[in-house]
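Hypothesis: this fold can be encoded by more than one sequence.
Test: take the structure tokens below, design a sequence, compare later.
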């Protein structure tokens, strides 16, 4: 039987950008303060504290997340949902040499369930982002099945529409919002459905250098 679980995160995503290197940028993140709701109820403090863990990520110069660095005591199953906070709001731009000329571009990106193709476009000074097709579903998804030896998973994008705005004279996004519905299927039928809504706005609070 299907079980529907709603997770809602409301908080401040603190961002600190370290000195860029030739081919990548190190960025520190911490989602704090945070209010975490699970099924409409306030989550236990241990779970809220988990999502408030400070971590590092490296990005390509175009903005694609490369690698995440977490405290050694976090298990991989605990790291994945935290990394997904950043994966869910990634915006990958064209190469710096062509960014002023390109109006539409396609990238390959990763998130918690797999690898997918994304279409971007500039429209009225904002970036339109749409996931268009799954390329593969990550193997760890199969571990949720008791019949993993025979299970073949595939992904379907039912809806995906996001709008982003690059911050001027800032370090990251001015705003990013939208919603999507993704489905994971096996040869036996629908395995899971993931629906998400995102609303990210840059804060007017003073920046701690």
């Amino acid at each position: 039987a299907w079980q529907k679980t709603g997770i809602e995160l409301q908080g401040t995503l603190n961002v600190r950008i370290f000195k860029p290197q030739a081919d990548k940028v190190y960025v520190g993140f911490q989602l704090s303060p945070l209010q975490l709701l699970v099924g409409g109820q306030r989550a236990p403090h241990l779970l809220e504290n988990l999502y408030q863990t400070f971590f590092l990520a490296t990005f390509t110069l175009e903005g694609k997340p490369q690698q995440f660095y977490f405290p050694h005591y976090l298990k991989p199953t605990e790291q994945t949902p935290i990394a997904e906070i950043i994966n869910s709001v990634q915006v990958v731009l064209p190469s710096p040499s062509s960014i002023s000329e390109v109006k539409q571009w396609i990238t390959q990106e990763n998130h918690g369930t797999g690898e997918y193709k994304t279409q971007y476009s500039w429209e009225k000074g904002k970036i339109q982002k749409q996931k268009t097709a799954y390329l593969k579903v990550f193997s760890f998804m199969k571990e949720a099945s008791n019949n993993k030896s025979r299970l073949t998973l595939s992904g379907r994008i039912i809806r995906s529409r996001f709008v982003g705005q690059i911050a001027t004279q800032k370090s990251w996004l001015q705003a990013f919002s939208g919603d999507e519905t993704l489905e994971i299927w096996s040869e036996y039928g629908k395995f899971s459905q993931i629906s998400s809504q995102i609303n990210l706005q840059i804060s007017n609070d003073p920046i701690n250098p």
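The mean pLDDT is 88. Residues 76-87 form the longest helix (12 residues).
Hypothesis status: open.
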